């Protein structure tokens, strides 16, 4: 990947990331509706919702919440910028983690019971999925001798088979990152959440719009991570596979009941150990 091309790709992410993320969210909602025998909203409905949020009044409990939400969005953009620039994948992961922490801080700052419980659950979920996420760049490093995204994209076509266990583990925690059932414990896109909206209960107006835009960026970042496993096969083959696996999460969301926090933690750590760590230990034998 040339430096010139990488910079254009990173800038395209900053400018067009919310557009692609909104389309992914719209298709997600439409597929969910069809699975539930409903017509569903227009694919651009997430965009209409955010535009409407900017027109509404913003009820601020504390000015800190808005500051934290801007940092949440900022580090989300930084994470994606690093990823699409072809730079360090591990650094991109750290920025993504810091972004999530700022969202929790914003929820905590409202002093609302629903937001506080949602934030506590979100931190617990981070404890569950972060070990598996760390194994992804480590696996790529062992197969390509580099953390750089550009080197991973130019890696061996066999790397997806060499990292099959890590791919399975990543798909498992992707359900948590996308806040899908059975792991939508801290917040939910659906009406079955006993915490109202959990993390985002006390956000409104432009503050809530910032959260939605950041989630659009996050959708694109996670899709980019998924793409890396198949990237050496070329974009014409890798992109359709990545999109297909991404939308499998919609099927999982609509066919599974929510787990408890303790079951989620145990299941995620077991999956990390059995498929992620085991794959990492066997890599020297297959590379």
From TrEMBL:
Chain ranges passing through the membrane: 6-27, 67-85, 91-111, 123-144, 156-176, 225-247, 267-286
Membrane topology listed for this record: Multi-pass membrane protein
Top-level taxon in the UniProt lineage: Bacteria
Entry protein name: NADH-quinone oxidoreductase subunit H
One GO CC annotation: plasma membrane
Pfam families in the cross-refs: NADHdh
Keywords annotated in UniProt: Membrane, Transmembrane, Transmembrane helix
Subcellular localization(s) per the UniProt record: Membrane
Claim: Membrane is one of the keywords in the record: yes
């Amino acid at each position: 990947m040339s430096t010139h091309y990488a910079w254009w790709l990173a800038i395209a992410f900053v400018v067009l990331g919310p557009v692609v993320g909104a389309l992914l969210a719209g298709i997600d909602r439409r597929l969910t509706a069809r699975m539930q025998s409903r017509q569903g909203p227009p694919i651009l409905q997430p965009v209409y919702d955010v535009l409407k949020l900017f027109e509404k009044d913003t009820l601020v409990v504390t000015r800190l919440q808005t500051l934290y939400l801007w940092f949440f969005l900022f580090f989300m953009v930084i994470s994606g910028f690093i990823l699409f620039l072809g730079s360090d994948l591990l650094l991109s992961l750290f920025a993504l983690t810091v972004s999530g922490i700022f969202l929790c801080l914003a929820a905590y700052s409202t002093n609302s019971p629903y937001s506080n419980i949602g934030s506590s659950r979100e931190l617990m979920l981070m404890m569950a999925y972060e070990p598996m996420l760390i194994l992804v760049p480590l696996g790529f490093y062992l197969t390509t001798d580099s953390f750089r995204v550009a080197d991973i994209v130019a890696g061996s076509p066999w790397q997806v088979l060499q990292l099959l266990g890590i791919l399975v583990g990543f798909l498992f925690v992707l359900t948590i990152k996308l806040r899908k059932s059975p792991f939508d414990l801290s917040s939910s896109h659906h009406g079955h959440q006993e915490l109202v909206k959990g993390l985002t209960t006390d956000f409104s107006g432009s503050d809530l719009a910032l959260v939605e835009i950041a989630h659009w960026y996050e959708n694109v970042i996670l899709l980019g991570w998924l793409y890396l496993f198949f990237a050496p096969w070329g974009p014409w083959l890798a992109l359709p596979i990545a999109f297909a696996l991404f939308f499998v999460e919609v099927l999982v969301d609509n066919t599974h009941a929510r787990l408890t926090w303790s079951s989620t933690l145990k299941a995620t750590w077991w999956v990390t150990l059995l498929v992620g760590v085991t794959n990492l230990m066997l890599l020297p034998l297959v590379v």
